[in-house]
Amino acid sequence: MSMSGRSIRIGRPGGGVVSEMRQYIYTMLRVVSDIERGEQFNVGVVLFSRPAAFIGARISCDTALFEAMKGTACLDDVLDRLGVLEAIAHGEVTGGPLALLDASERFHFLAAPTSTAIQPSPVHTGISSDPRATLDRLFTRLVLR
Questions:
Q1: 66 in Cβ contact with 74 (< 8 Å)
Q2: pTM of the entire structure?
Q3: Which residues share a beta bridge with 9?
């Protein structure tokens, strides 16, 4: 069961493959309402799996929480930026030239700190037989309340 190929076949006793586990990496996107106070909350997850040829993002900003934090960031600007980041992840034309990059380059752009109002978490790793379902599970656990 080597990770050098970035995928693992999980078999049944007596033969047959149940599923193929593939390596993935992900980052959470966080809104920092006021950089000086350091208050933040998760608004999205971006997941990339080269072996599965998958990149996806799920983003949702709790606007009531944002407003309750009374930070210095502008809600409309943050929402616009989040929309662009999601478009970049999905390779949509509304993401501009960055959306035309290959999936690995798009992920690494999204995982790099480029803003004070929206910041990525450190990159985490895992394995999954279904990256889309894993993205949904991570989003539900880490972003939705």
A1: no
A2: 0.85
A3: 20
